[in-house]
Amino acid sequence: MTIGVVVFPGSNCDRDVRWAAEGCMGIPTRFLWHEERDLSGLDAVVLPGGFSYGDYLRCGAIARFAPVLEEVAWFASRGGPVLGICNGFQVLTELGLLPGALTRNSRLHFICEPTGLKVHPGACRWLSDYGEAEAISLPIAHGEGRYQCEPATLEAMEQSGQVVLRYQNNPNGSVGDVAGLCNPTGNVLGLMPHPERACDSRTGGLDGQRLFASLLG
To answer: Once rounded to an integer, what is the mean pLDDT over residues 19-44?
Structure first.
């Protein structure tokens, strides 16, 4: 098992993901510069948090045109596990791998705090080690984490089990308390909380470990 970690100009959580995967879970990683196209030898891909290309237009709007993402989209279409964390979630929506959009938080402030979540893993491969309706805590750190979509889209995702993470106390105004979504086949997951920051009891708890461990099952 080897995880590729995409690095855009402006990424700031790529090393956190490597530390969580390698240091805490023993899973090798390989950094993928945004201009790369070679995903050979990789079993999963992570789009980390940060401010890809400075987020000068709209979060993830420029990153979605990166050469590496053409290959990531192909990889996902073949069933490859893809994870987008925070800015990575924003990129996945811009790329069209997940529906909806992430917009400014309802109170227009950057939020950085531990957040209670309910997990509804369904068919999501990244969450298979969690129990249904299990309560966990993961940190958030975002200014544009308010998930929005059309009511019909939300209803369809709820019926198909794609809303896999919900806020217990919605911090940003996301519709349906959405904190994380997967695609219909369960191999693509986008979430605003940071599981890589909850893989060590000395720093942010251990609730993020099983997300990475799910790949090994």
So the answer is: 96
